[in-house]
Amino acid sequence: MKMPPAGLARVCQAARDLIAFRRLNLDADWPFHGRFDAIMCRNVAIYFDEQTQTRLWRRFADRLQTAGVLYIGHSEALPKELVTRFDQDAAGAFRVVDGRSEPARRSGISTEKTDESEGQNSHSCG
Fold first, then answer.
1. pLDDT, tens digit, for every residue of 83-123?
2. Structural domains in the chain?
3. Residue 89 CB coordination number (10 Å)
4. Starting from the edge strand earliest in sequence, which strands make up the sheet with 86-90, in order?
5. Distance CA 11, CA 51 (A)
6. How many Å apart are CA 120 and CA 64, to the nearest integer?
7. Which residues contact 20 (CB under 8 A, 6 or more apart)?
8. H helical segments located in 1-126
9. Cα 73 to chain centroid, rounded
10. Which ranges constitute the DSSP H helices of 64-101?
11. Cα separation of 74 and 64, whole Å?
12. Which residues does 50 contact at the CB level (< 8 Å), separation at least 6?
């Protein structure tokens, strides 16, 4: 296997087969109907007004599997009316609560924006 240039990484074929990259207008109808294990939308919602942000976070919560994770940017925050649908795993990582209407099980969920740095996880194939 040919090695990628310095500073780049190569993703194994099995992982690439699980991913589809397409354009998506976050404020329009979405072309998919299934649920997701994870949604990553970091530092995008900050460019929308508060009402549009709330609608977007709600749509994401509705599209996540139970225990699915929503990753948002450190300068973004979930609105108070949606906090009960999530447990906060880490700064910017929110896991959908089982049952979707239960209050969050952990008391550490913050609705305030934070400047905490976030860790990075790495995964490998094979």
1. 889 999 999 999 998 654 333 334 344 334 433 333 333 34
2. 27-96 (3.40.50.150)
3. 14
4. 36-41, 64-72, 93-96, 86-90
5. 37
6. 22
7. none
8. 13-16, 50-63, 80-83
9. 9
10. 80-83
11. 20
12. 79
CB contact set of 51 (below 8 Å; sequence gap of 6+): none
* Tokens matching residue 29: 């109808």
DSSP state for residue 51 in the 8-state scheme? H
Question: Residue 126 carries which side chain, given as an amino acid letter?
Answer: G
Q: Which of 63, 104, 55 is nearest to 83 (CA)?
A: 104
* 53's tokens: 């942000």
The structure tokens listed for 70 are 């929503």
Q: pLDDT per residue over 37-89, tens digit each? A: 999 999 999 999 999 999 999 999 999 999 999 999 999 999 988 888 999 99
Q: What's the pLDDT band for 32 if we cut at 50, 70, 90?
A: confident
Residue 47: both structure tokens together: 């460019």
Q: What is the value of pTM for the model shown? A: 0.66
